[in-house]
TrEMBL record:
UniProt cross-references to PANTHER family, sorted A to Z: RNA HELICASE (PTHR24031)
ATP-binding keyword on record: yes
PROSITE patterns, alphabetized: HD_CAS3 (PS51643), HELICASE_ATP_BIND_1 (PS51192)
GO terms of biological process kind: defense response to virus
Protein name (database record): CRISPR-associated protein
Helicase ATP-binding domain boundaries: 267-439
Amino acid sequence: MTDYIARINPVTGQKQSVEDHLLAVAALCQNFSSKIQLGNCGNIVGLLHDLGKCSQEFQGYIGEVTQVGGSTFKNRVLKPDHSSAGGQYIWNTLSGDDYSLTGVAQALALTACSHHSGLPDCIAIDGTDCFGRRMLKEEFRTHLSEVSAKIAESVYKKLEKHFSNRLFQQEFTKLVTVIKYQKESQFASYLQLGLALRFLLSALIDADRMDAAGRNVRPGEDWQAQTECLEQYLKQFQPDSQLNKLRQDISEACFRQSKLPPGLYRLSVPTGGGKTLSSLRFGLNHAKINNLERIFYIAPFTTILDQNAEVIRKALDVPPDSPFVLEHHSNILEEKQTSLNEQLAENWEAPVVLTTSVQFLETFYSHKTGCNRRLHNMANSVIIFDEVQALPEEMMFFFNNAVNFLTRICSSTVLLCTATQPPLDKLDKDKGVLCFAPDAELAPDAWGNYTALNARVKLENRSKIAGYNLEELKDIVLEQARQGKKILVVVNTKAQAKALYISVKAAIPNVYHLSTSMCPYHRKQVLTKLKYQLESNESLSRPLVCISTQLIEAGVDIDFEVVIRYLAGLDSITQSAGRCNRNFKDKQGLVILVNPGDENLDHLKEIQHGKTVTQRLISEIEQARDSNLNQLLSPGKLSRFFDYYYFQQRGVMECKKTIDGIEESVLNLFSNTHNGVKAYKSSNKPVPGYCFYQAFRTGGENFRVIDSPTKGVITACNPDAESIINKLCSLGDMVQLGGLLRKSQQYAVNLFEYEFEKLAELGALHETQPESGVFYLERSYYDSEIGISTEPEAQTFKFC
């Protein structure tokens, strides 16, 4: 194998042998997969994953690639299959009458075959035995006999030892036993087993990419310096008010309970209760005590991550450009099966990682290897979810099973932080419910805290049957503005935000706009200006109006005197109310509920459904004697909202779709009960003796956290962004390119597919390097106040 080339560095031209690559990847993969006690399994797949590269066909291919200067050789229709041989070798060697051994053989064969393509369908949705076909793939395509004879002695000796002592079989059998011991439904158990397989593949993918890029494993943290730094930082906060006393009580409770063992916990704190620092205090001390490797902050909105990252860096005295804290919240990198693209994919190895709910769920369920790569780094970690109630209902069972896998199999701790805790432990047990640790609530007197903080505002319902037009909504805003108030308006769509912003700005100065059409850099600028003006006593700071989508209603520490909220789900209304009189500056703030008459929520069915349930609750309160609309913000009403909401949406949670003419639940595809298994049985064939029947690829391809997936693009919105783009277009060094991608996130905006396609048609999008999958947007299609526009008028659009 020393004579066979595995890869050639496109910059230096340095060659790596297949033998050296297999041994290096095997060592890394064993290290990563040991996190769930599958170290020997990881070593085996590492030793065999690129066995096919020893074929004469592949060696001819890589020689041709070298001749064209390191870029992909264009004259070939397909790159030679170098992944199947390793999987076939494992399957042919280990499968047989021993069901236990055959089960682990299938797991290892699937992993070895899938490190570039992602996990395949084992049994396809139409009943095809795809795994069996892959194992019987023709010799002239996989070259199994040829490459088996070329296994290097160093590799063969390690394999011989594995196949002799069978420690890998013991590991896998123990894992299956642990999953079955949880006494969940058969459906949930098979789904968990599928996630374990994805974990093993994650370890292989990251090991392969890291060795290819010449990267070393980052050393672990003991968290001592960080905990000391945080404790020093917290000393500046004194319990000199009702709110600060409450925040300190919550912080101290989190500190005391950081000694708890790893598990699943809640932190139920009303908005303004100091969740970010309290959860950080718990996370750091918990990681230190339990020797955990990383801390993750996961949130639905990038504005929460923007603020949390700023708070964490300040509290831990971490410079903005330090790799200690990673913000990963944009799909800048479009996945492609090219060496450059694969090596640039983020693997979440930083000690503190801030990312979105979308990125989290795609790590577990997407078919893309760039997503799957990150999974193993979530083991042995503290994972803090902020505003978990914002998850789409179609994702609840996916989320529950992922969290259970992390806490039960990966030895991680998960903490759910929100003012509006959804009942994720009370859903369908067969599909997967959360299993909280005993005494899971970290917050002291959670219900009492809600009563105290909800008294900060008065809730007023001004919705009417016909709804309001744009002019009437502007008048409601101006009515409060004429009183010199500082006002937040939270709307349901970006189009509503833009239209109302333009209308109000034409009438008064001091108006701000916030939406996800803007890049994080400009959103941060707006929030900085807003915070200054909200704290200011200068006469010029009044009136003030901020018009925002729901991105501002969670995790953003900001305080207005009046909040006007377009009618939505009660969880959203509660979060918006938390931006009103947040710091008890007034005796009572005002929250006004309104309903636009021409609202189109066809593509936002969750908001529409939540709005309907809220209207039902408002009606119940208004029909009661001595009704007080502030009851709407009570924990009891919030609990009833979720009961109504999830009961009516229980069918939606299985994420049913029509795939190739077959109606199927996407959730089922990740377990062993999908229609393909039934179709296979109905053809009078004996069911193969497999452990895995999942349709992984079909499930991953049809998995969408949101109905309309997004693609991140970098906006050339200022000289710094343009400088980053220029470097991305010219550099070839993997380490530098990876660092630039991280820096570029502050200038990135996620586009829906139709927006991306329209801008591409206009010639406004450009790929930084061929096959990189990284795109940038011309400056003329971006405005610092409005954000991205798909209309050519954006080139000259300016306010007077």
